[in-house]
Amino acid sequence: MRALLHSVTLTLLWNVAVATVPYQAYILAPPSRTVRPVSIFSQTGSVSSANALLGDHGTEGGSLVLKEFNSSVTYDFGKNIGGWVNLNTSSSSGSIGVTFSESSLWVSSTGCDATADSGLDAPLVFNISAPGHFQAPWDKERGAFRYLTVVNEGAGQVSVDDLWVHFTAMPHWQDDALRNYSGWFHSNDEQLNRIWYAGAYTNQLVTIDPRRGDALISLGTVAGGTLDQWSLNTTITNGTSALTDGAKRDRLVWSGDMSIAVPGIALTTFDLISVRNALDSLFVLQSPSGMLPYAGYPFNERGLISFTYHLYALIGVANFYLYSGDKSFLDGKWAAWKQGMEWATAQIDSTGLANVTAPNDWLRFGMGGHNIEANSILYYTLNLGIMLATDEGETTAAQQYAQLASRIQQAAVPLLWQPSVGLFRDNETTTLAPQDGNAWAVKSGLVTNASQITAISQALEARWGPYGAPAPEAADAVSPFISGFELEAHFMANRTAAALTLIRRMWGDFMLDDPRMTNSTFIEGYSVTGALHYAPYANDARISHAHGWATGPTSSLTTFCGGIQLLSDAGATWTIAPQPGDLSTVDTGFSTSKGKFSSKWTKSGTAFTLSISTPKGTRGTVGVPLPGNYNKALLLGGPQTASVVHGDASGRYWVSGLAGGEYEFIAIAL
Length: 670
Ligand SMILES: *[C@@H]1O[C@H](CO)[C@@H](O)[C@H](O)[C@H]1NC(C)=O
Ligand SMILES: *[C@@H]1O[C@H](CO)[C@@H](O)[C@H](O)[C@H]1NC(C)=O
Ligand SMILES: *[C@@H]1O[C@H](CO)[C@@H](O)[C@H](O)[C@H]1NC(C)=O
Ligand SMILES: *[C@@H]1O[C@H](CO)[C@@H](O)[C@H](O)[C@H]1NC(C)=O
Ligand SMILES: *[C@@H]1O[C@H](CO)[C@@H](O)[C@H](O)[C@H]1NC(C)=O
Ligand SMILES: *[C@@H]1O[C@H](CO)[C@@H](O)[C@H](O)[C@H]1NC(C)=O
Ligand SMILES: *[C@@H]1O[C@H](CO)[C@@H](O)[C@H](O)[C@H]1NC(C)=O
Ligand SMILES: *[C@@H]1O[C@H](CO)[C@@H](O)[C@H](O)[C@H]1NC(C)=O
Ligand SMILES: *[C@@H]1O[C@H](CO)[C@@H](O)[C@H](O)[C@H]1NC(C)=O
Ligand SMILES: *[C@@H]1O[C@H](CO)[C@@H](O)[C@H](O)[C@H]1NC(C)=O
Ligand SMILES: *[C@@H]1O[C@H](CO)[C@@H](O)[C@H](O)[C@H]1NC(C)=O
Fold this sequence. Notes:
By secondary structure, this protein is α+β, with helices and mostly antiparallel strands. Strands 1, 2, 5, 6, 8, 9, 10 and 12 form an 8-stranded antiparallel beta sheet that branches. Strands 13-24-25-26-31-28-29 form a 7-stranded antiparallel beta sheet, with helices on one face. It binds 2-acetamido-2-deoxy-beta-D-glucopyranose (11 copies).
């Protein structure tokens, strides 16, 4: 009885919790871990009743019959999912093969899309000796697929009475609570809404059971060397869930990928334990010199070193602390963090800049010497170090970091800025203007001159093609990872229209709506031609269609369009400064351990209305965008009574020193 009451109480609480987060209809995570296909993509050979396995029909008694060898049906789940395939058969003999693909491009009855550098992955085969229920072995979880092909691999007819996938992502969340988001976003632009939720879902799909990482060993080939064996059986972190790079592959911890994924997670699901498990797995591999690995186990065994990914691991600690406010976590990592910073700053030479000799990065080329991306990231990390050192009460470390950062800033601009191009060059031996270094120069705050920031934003925009922003430092690649930083640069330049155009063009028109995509998760990389070829890889079938590093718009939309920026631990201090661009309504928010933060606004020709809510005990500043062209408005609401106000250069009126709570501001153009 006690147990029963307890569970009733939990259910009630749960219903209340769900009701408080609006716009649930956009959430792509399934309501339960049992997921069935929604439509038929294609079929070959002699087949009957393929639609018996769609949706709930699977439980209504009909059966798919694959009448002869090699007849097949490809089912579409309507979105990318991941897990163990299950099927029931009433046949007593025969053999049923199953293949998987994220993209429609690699749908095949003979092989899956790929996890290796060449070839396709072998099908999963169920040899039937009696009717009953069959399920994939535990190491044959498929991390991501939208299409599943069932093929008759035997001589006689076989039937399938039910087909479902046991969804395995977010293993530490209750089976019926995968939609338990703490954040939301809604605007008048439906495409942006879908993009925000697809980013949130992508980060859920790349959160895995840490016992099912990629073994990274060649398991050999089958069928004459064209199909690869695969097995997800390697433990990559401690704990019961881990944030990885990709759902299909690599299923490993990469600190660079986390730098985009973690803010997205904090503002959607607040699943910080998976972030922590991933960070811990990198820090147990820290070398005595302070150096952190390029990636987690088992990839670290390759002995590759990356200056930038080393810094991203340090950034990961700061991000975790910013969103969680968990001081004991920071205390536990602080000695290792300082040691890591010592390793990084030991690379600084007499110019004041780091000379990069650990060249691995996000698979771009030419990451060496006085590189602008690396030095911008170092500048950014040193500034985070000032914040962390201050919170740790270490003023000497904070001063040292400030001096090093200031020297980088003073050296980088004269050495690498190209005034005639409006962009930084990669290093002093080239004129190549990289996407990563220019985006990071703005994001990091290394560039403070507003006309330079504007020039960078304009010059990057001028290079866009029909499929998005190019990364010339990686051949013909479009990188949704680096483009996530580029978005932040446009927002920080107050060029909101450019940022929204890039989101719609890349993440909406192409990455969601192109028929080769999953319409639910974001791809790792592609070509400027729109081909699903990613320059660093020989094997196009290997590209991951669910990569956490491609989810930049999710945090950007909340942070810039909603305008909610946390400045210190879990939002103890904050700024809310919406950037409307061409939008007319935005409603967004999320919760941290301190409580709920939200920003809801509407813009009409002559009025801007903003409602905000922040937790009691916090403090912050609001920048109200003023409507109209004159930057002069009547401001109602907030702590002031009605007053006539003037905007700053970005058209905002600032109200500072606000105590946490609920406020409404109405600005009317005069
Ligand atoms: C499939 O098998 C499972 C496990 O034996 C069973 O619970 C389920 O009812 C079966 N489905 C159908 C449609 O027979
Ligand atoms: C099975 O069918 C597929 C597609 O219909 C075809 O490509 C393949 O060659 C066939 N395999 C055999 C062994 O006939
Ligand atoms: C299924 O049977 C085939 C043919 O006998 C055999 O080669 C294969 O190894 C079996 N597969 C499994 C998963 O048992
Ligand atoms: C939903 O998430 C909140 C925290 O964000 C947690 O307290 C709650 O237990 C979760 N509910 C379920 C059913 O998992
Ligand atoms: C993973 O599976 C492969 C293939 O079965 C096997 O060779 C390897 O030893 C397994 N690794 C672990 C850690 O179990
Ligand atoms: C798990 O934690 C232990 C103790 O800190 C550590 O030695 C081990 O390397 C960790 N395992 C992984 C996979 O991170
Ligand atoms: C300098 O940048 C160019 C262009 O990216 C690159 O080819 C070259 O390798 C870089 N130099 C070093 C030392 O990495
Ligand atoms: C960077 O260091 C390497 C190795 O010491 C050296 O060969 C190279 O000349 C240095 N690059 C610059 C730009 O100083
Ligand atoms: C800002 O940059 C512009 C363009 O490079 C330059 O003309 C101007 O002097 C700079 N302003 C300051 C204050 O450095
Ligand atoms: C963008 O707007 C902010 C807030 O008003 C301002 O501080 C900043 O200087 C502006 N940046 C540029 C490049 O105009
Ligand atoms: C893509 O998914 C959305 C839901 O997120 C759905 O409304 C839309 O119809 C889908 N588009 C296609 C082409 O299936």
